[in-house]
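User: My instructor asked us to take a sequence, write out its structure as tokens, and then describe one feature of it. I'm not sure where to start. Here is the sequence I was given:
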Amino acid sequence: MEEDKKACWNCRWYSAAYTKGYHRFDKQNFGMCRHDKCVQKNECCTAWQYNTRANMNVKRQMRRQISLKTLKDVLEHLSEISQILKENSDDTSFRTQ
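Assistant: Let's start with the prediction itself. The structure tokens for your sequence are:
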């Protein structure tokens, strides 16, 4: 029973892997460990640590911050592209007149 509680899927350092399905993402029976190795979800190791609610909240906040930063970067790139396209359209309309 104790061995089942210390399976990788219940570890602080385990991140499950997903594959893209037709309508949703499907969870796989493997994932990544903090040691950057692919492991089965039922494996056990010596680096196992209890996954507390606080740890889950930290991960969630970190993913949210990374997502927001990435969205900000994408928005900046899109505005740059928009500016370039406006300048090009202004140049072509000036030449045709």
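For the description part of your assignment, you could build on this observation: The mean pLDDT is 81. Try explaining in your own words what that tells you about the chain.
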